[in-house]
Task: inverse folding
């Protein structure tokens, strides 16, 4: 079983979507189920509705999964298992106050050392614990040996007990911490391979330690995906980069198929540049993904988006644009000369249908042309329409073409009118309002 484990704490980041896509592809390749686990135990950071939004995004990208679980539903399990660890003296109650821990932290900073728990509560007797009427957290005892694991991309890791530390598994309110809930759930769900972002590398030895303390000896494979850098600035794609938000990219008119294509292509060896997720399942190799940071280049995504729009069936494109006529899908493709997203294409088509009152510099010609077009019969062929207008209005050269282009497309540049006309000829009545 594989899992995608998003926290409902903000807009879905492209790095997270990349993790979801890779989990989906690998689950298909090895024929194991994929489960979506919403990691919602940090109630202060949860944002209402983000879980739904995440699932909507997964559906939009056609990421199939077996079911969705909310981690908070397993609270009782998490508490019960923590109690088991306490009974076995593998975990202990810690009464240290935030103030005391802050002092310890400051002292470590002063000495240039990383902060570690000083072990004070580890040796308290059961009687003392029972008779202490103060809030407490539950800490797991640090391991007695090094924790080692191999990452499929990054190779071997080896953590000393000091680095794993005696860390908190239940907060004072007895909710589980991320590392603890995650480690227990990966065990209960019988996860075989964890694919996640590299910001979690240092959490992995803690999670392995938790499972070892529980006597779970099945080895879980790990893949930590490198962070994504903004190709333009060379910095990590942070929340401040609009393009880091999947929602933003969709709203801007990037097709899910193009975004998915790019997230798989980025920092990877692929047999072709343009592909669908279904195709990627055939050849994708997680070991081929580069272990150095991937670079996100919005211009490259625009190029890929144009290719995916080109590949769309015209009726489908028309529907995405808000119409239901294959001709308008064809018209949309014509605009790929100058537009890269659905939003940009839609803006161009909306201009065609927008009300036009005059054409600057050609005010009289505009009125003449408008009158002429209103009374004109239907012309299937643009050349015939042109001949008709020329005869009726006696306009020629730029006095004809500038206002005509403007009346028909709402702009004074763009593709040739002779190329646009076949797709708008059935709408002349609506265009000349
Ligand atoms: N909930 C974690 C996150 O969104 C993911 C943890 C994991 O995949 O183990 O970063």
Result:
């Amino acid at each position: 079983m594989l899992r995608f484990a998003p926290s409902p704490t903000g807009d879905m980041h492209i790095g997270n979507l990349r993790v979801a896509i890779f989990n989906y592809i690998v689950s298909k390749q090895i024929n194991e189920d994929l489960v979506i686990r919403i990691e919602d135990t940090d109630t202060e950071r949860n944002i209402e509705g983000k879980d739904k939004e995440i699932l909507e995004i997964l559906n939009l990208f056609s990421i199939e999964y077996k079911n969705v679980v909310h981690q908070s539903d397993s609270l009782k399990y998490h508490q019960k298992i923590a109690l088991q660890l306490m009974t076995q003296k593998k975990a202990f109650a810690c009464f240290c106050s935030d103030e005391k821990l802050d002092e310890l932290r400051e002292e470590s900073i002063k000495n240039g050392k990383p902060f570690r728990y000083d072990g004070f509560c580890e040796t308290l007797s059961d009687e003392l614990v029972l008779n202490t009427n103060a809030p407490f957290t539950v800490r797991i005892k640090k391991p007695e040996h090094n924790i080692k694991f191999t990452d499929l991309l990054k190779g071997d890791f080896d953590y000393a007990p000091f680095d794993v530390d005696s860390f908190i598994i239940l907060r004072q309110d007895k909710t589980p911490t991320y590392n603890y809930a995650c480690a227990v759930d990966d065990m209960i769900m019988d996860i075989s391979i964890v694919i996640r972002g590299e910001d979690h590398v240092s959490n992995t030895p803690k999670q392995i330690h938790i499972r070892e303390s529980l006597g779970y000896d099945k080895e879980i494979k790990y893949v930590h995906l490198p962070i994504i850098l903004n190709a333009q600035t060379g910095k990590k794609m942070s929340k401040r980069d609009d393009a880091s938000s999947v929602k933003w990219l969709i709203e801007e008119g990037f097709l899910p198929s193009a975004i998915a294509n790019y997230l798989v292509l980025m920092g990877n060896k692929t047999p072709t540049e343009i592909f669908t997720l279904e195709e990627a399942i055939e050849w994708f190799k997680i070991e081929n993904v580069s272990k150095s940071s991937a670079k996100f280049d919005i211009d490259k995504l625009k190029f890929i988006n144009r290719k995916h729009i080109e590949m769309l069936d015209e009726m489908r494109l028309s529907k995405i644009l808000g119409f239901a006529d294959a001709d308008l899908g064809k018209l949309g493709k014509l605009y790929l000369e100058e537009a890269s997203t659905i939003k940009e294409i839609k803006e161009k088509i909306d201009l065609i249908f927008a009300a036009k009152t005059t054409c600057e510099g050609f005010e009289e010609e505009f009125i003449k042309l408008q009158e002429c077009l209103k009374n004109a019969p239907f012309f299937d062929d643009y050349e015939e329409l042109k001949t008709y207008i020329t005869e009726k209005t006696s306009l020629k050269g730029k006095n004809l073409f500038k206002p005509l282009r403007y009346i028909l497309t709402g702009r004074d540049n763009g593709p040739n009118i002779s190329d646009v006309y076949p797709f708008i000829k059935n709408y002349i009545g609506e265009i000349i309002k």
Observations:
- The longest strand covers residues 34-38.
